[in-house]
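User:
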Amino acid sequence: MSTPQAMLPAVRRPGTIIAALIATLVSAAAGVAAAITVFAGGTNMVKSLLEDPAVQARLGLSDDLLKTAQDLGGDLYQQVLDQAYATLSARAAFGAVLAVLLLVFAVLALGAALWARILITVVGVVAVSLQLLVVTDVATSSMKLFGLLVVASTVVAIVLWWLPANGRYAKARKAPHA
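Assistant: Predicted structure:
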């Protein structure tokens, strides 16, 4: 004889969870790509950013001022570049850590557990805030593009993780099948 539990249909994972996982994967990949962009660019990237007239205007710098800083002492100018790069690389490292956390929590949320969805939301809000800072600050166009992709995909992911079908799925998984 079969048990009543064996006759019950298995609880199917809703498509909203898979869609949320995909959106989270896009966010994590874009976050890592943004970090790689910064680390690959190094201080040369910062130097090229400072040569851009739009960036100079935003920072209140001029070509003459930058040239004078270079002429007065290469070490002083290099310290400015190193400090700017340190700021960008710290943001990139933090963004990469957030991307990995989003990825881990998304895998843990495949069962739609409430705690995992809460962690995704908290980490996602921090990631969106960081990327909005990157996008609105001095950055390369690729950094801004990846930052906007992180913002959009994370917002979509958070909304998808909280759809009612996911809550019903989590409750159905917990319910005794007797």
